């Protein structure tokens, strides 16, 4: 299963996994875009084992519906790639009343993974891949202002959500030790994708120019594809990967007490993982 599969890293990931012969579930928000991606990947790879599932990952009920529908299909799940993400220049709040970058970039990973965890265990060996970012080095977890109500600095709040991805990855790896399910996270680099293109006309004009100095989605997606498919990492869990190699994340990302507290608060905010 690959989330955020209509463009950028998610689309490239789905395409390359399809080339390998994987049976894929592509999670998209927009049906027309999702159907276009499915059709294009089928044409390019000849792989017909592609399924579209619709979900708005900013809405917790939509995530629950997605997980329930998938589980009810009775199929195994060997790889979950949590790829979907947003970058908002202005503070936005989801239908659940949660700051949008924290909700989509972290809580959707947390919810979907834990709601599918029993199926992943049943399907073991299985892998979870969380798309993080080196931007986590610019973030801190402020438990007194997780909703960014006191001041909204986009890069700092984005960094917070990406730090949360890594803390979640490490804590989940500790909890899954020995069960046949691995979890790792990836930094794709600064990639020319549609991330941030939802921020109005000026951002829409600037993104193509900025993209000239950024990695292609194909290069950026290489590490998450590697984590999803390579035999070289089948026994590795709790790792942070850059350019398909293990790397060190920020010092605070290794704070186990911080990770446990974030887990507990995420569980309270979502009603899962308690």
Give the helices and strands, then pairings.
Layout: E1 2-3, H1 8-19, E2 24-28, H2 31-45, E3 50-54, H3 60-72, E4 79-82, H4 100-115, H5 117-122, E5 126-131, H6 154-176, E6 181-187, H7 201-211, H8 217-220, H9 222-229, E7 240-242, E8 245-247, H10 256-270
Parallel strand pairs: 1-2, 2-3, 4-5, 5-6, 6-7
Antiparallel strand pairs: 7-8
Helix pairs in contact: 1-2, 3-4, 4-6, 6-10
Explain the overall architecture.
43% of the residues are buried. By secondary structure, the protein is an alpha/beta fold. The chain has one domain: Rossmann fold (3-Layer(aba) Sandwich). A hairpin with a 2-residue loop joins strand 7 and strand 8. It has a five-stranded mixed β-sheet, with helices on both faces. A three-stranded parallel β-sheet has the order 1-2-3, covered by helices on one side. About 5% of the residues have low confidence. The protein is built from ten helices and eight strands.
Q: Going by CATH, what is the homologous superfamily?
A: NAD(P)-binding Rossmann-like Domain
CATH topology: Rossmann fold
Order of helices and strands: EHEHEHEHHEHEHHHEEH
User: What is the count of distinct domains?
Assistant: 1
Percentage of residues in DSSP E strands: 5-15%
Strand order of the largest sheet: 4-5-6-7-8
Residues in helices, as a percent range: 40-55%
Average pLDDT rating: 92
Sheet of most strands: 5 strands, mixed
Ends distance:
24 Å
User: Rg to the nearest angstrom?
Assistant: 17 Å
Number of helices: 10
- The CATH class name reads Alpha Beta
Global outline = globular
Q: Count the E strands.
A: 8
> Which CATH architecture would you pick?
3-Layer(aba) Sandwich
The poorly predicted ranges are 201-213
